[in-house]
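re: ur msg from earlier - yeah i can do the copper (II) ion complex, just paste it... oh wait u already did. ok heres what im feeding in:
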Amino acid sequence: MRHRGLATRVAGVMGLGLLLVGVACGSGAAEADTQTTASSGPAQEIKVSMGDFFYDPKDISVEAGRVRFLLSNVGKTAHRFAVTGEGVKASSRNVGAGRESTLEVDLRPGTYKMGCTLGDHEARGSVGIIIVK
Ligand SMILES: [Cu+2]
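and the outut:
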């Protein structure tokens, strides 16, 4: 009998705890939504074909702001699309042969390198330049 009473009380406390956690998460998510809306404008979309071993186009010119790269792997091996420069270091996941993916980054004016960080793909030609004005 004493055990059952204890179990009931423990369950009650746990239930209250879960309720509080739920409320805390709810308010946190609302704040995150507001921030996302404030910082992101319409993204410029740039299509990039990734092949064995090249990027097409090889040189990209965009306006500063949010850029969404629409990646299409037209090769026979997996590729990746990484952007580095001006303090930015972003990369897509591995994109399998024949698959598509996207990478969104905020870019300010400057010169960036785009390249495939898999194996020696950059050295073999999967590389290019992004100029942001
Ligand atoms: Cu590659």
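cool cool. Residues 79-80, 116, 118, 121, 126 surround copper (II) ion (CB under 6 Å). ping me if u need the other ligands too
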